[in-house]
Amino acid sequence: MEPNQGIAPEWVKEFVGSAHGDLNRVQQLLEQEPGLLNAAWDWGGGDWETALGAAAHMGRRDIALYLLERGARLDLFAAAMLGKLAIVEAMIADRPELKQALGPHGIPLLAHAVAGGEEASAVAALLQ
């Protein structure tokens, strides 16, 4: 990529797609183009997703933590999957309707917590 030329859309699509389950490819792509970290892809109809969002609904803690360690912006759905109870509680206390929030692909917040397994069980209990 040439500097200041933007990121090729096919890179964004591959990066977000890979974050659903391929940590090695995520690492390779991010090394080649650090600007991908918070890039979002529209799968159609306004279904925007970041790599962190992809990792979150797939329960890929390893990918999520890798991205967060590099500066990805934590969102409610990733916080739920990672079991960040205090963050989820605070956001829901501020905006109770978020308990029913839908993430990428229309996946409910509760499903993100369930995808987080035992480490997110307290968040799942809160959302049920």
Automatic annotation (TrEMBL):
Q: Which domain of life is it from?
A: Bacteria
Q: Which species?
A: Paenibacillus lycopersici
**Name this protein carries in UniProt:** Ankyrin repeat domain-containing protein
Database matches in InterPro entries: Ankyrin_rpt-contain_sf
